Amino acid sequence: MGSGRDHPAERDHPADGSTGTQPHRPAEEHVVKITTIEVSSSATPKKHPVRDALQLLDYDGLTTVTIHTDEGVSGSSRTYFGRMPSSPAVLAKIIDEQLAPVIIGEDPAFIRLIREKLRRLTDYQGTAGLSSYGISAIDQALWDLQGRALSVPVWQLLGAQRTHIATYAMVGWLELDVPGLERVAAAAMEQGFLGVKMKVGGGPLSTDLARIAAVRNVIGPDAALMVDANQAFSYAEALRRGKAYQDLGCYWFEEPVAASDTDAHVRLAEHLDIPIAAGENRYGQQAFRDLIAGNGVGVVQPDLRRAGGITDCYEVGLMAAGFGIPYASHGGGAHIHVLAALPNTIFMESGLLPADGSVQLVDGCYPLPTGPGLSSWGG
């Protein structure tokens, strides 16, 4: 017979968004505390705008978050935007005025506790969207802080499984004509990438097929060639084009339909042999559950900014691993730390390497960064 008292996990959470629980510590133990959070933003037009099937990416936007502690250790994150010049400043305002104030005084080691507090705080206004971007920015800064506090890279904290990450180059944007496509594909091969990804869906299927054939001719028969539709197609059109892409030996078919349409993903996966890659436009670990459990994805692809940062991407990867589904990042940079630790990693996405030769691939792979926190190689 029970005592009649509530179990702590069953008690109502306070209205301020906190969990109502605090880590238990001996009274004499010093607790590190977050003291201040700095947020800044910028947006400048791209010198060379790029296009996918749905949008023109014409801005280089950036929101930077730095978390300071009473022990003098800090951690930072950088969140990039490709369009909407106002977005970095809007995100900075959400972080500065809504998220940052409620975690001042928290112990930065309790990353998941802070994540839960911020999710509850933003639930009323909707956590998906820019609120998730803000939570992700804080999550990444916290991981960076932990790595710097211990003078180790974050992949070491997560428990790395590999020393190098296989990588491909995302270079085949739709604003490029066929000669332009051929040039960037050749450059990627010269830099040692294991494959290239190109956009599709900007015109009729015949245009896609001609562009794919041109790239394949440049990269050769053995390099991986991925195609990305950026949610452009209906189910019927995705099925039609997917059959054509798989006949050309494409490695995966990315975001063929609306990201939210789990049923269409499942049906496509049932009727196509080419793996469906998806996930960059899903918010939080739970948004991946039905997609993975329903076999609607052949390569899971979270985005650090939308999925919730290092913590959620790592959890998504482990969930996918339990179902035997490979993991490939959307984007590179700090994502390399998650990729290093997951058992099901197959690829990291990258742009072309810097022209100055400061970054070099080893047998088509990025070596793990050795600096503390979330230091990374390009991406």
From TrEMBL:
Entry cofactors: Mg(2+)
GO annotation, biological process: carbohydrate catabolic process
Molecular function GO terms recorded: hydro-lyase activity; magnesium ion binding
Disordered as annotated region, ranges: 1-29
Keyword Cytoplasm found: no
Biased composition annotated in UniProt, kind: Basic and acidic residues: 1-15
UniProt entry keywords in alphabetical sequence: Magnesium, Metal-binding
Matches recorded under InterPro entries: Enolase-like_C_sf, Enolase-like_N, Enolase_C-like, Mandelate_racemase_C, Mandelate_racemase_N_dom, RHMD-like
Residues covered by the Mandelate racemase/muconate lactonizing enzyme C-terminal domain: 181-275
Source species, domain of life: Bacteria
Designated name of the protein: Mandelate racemase
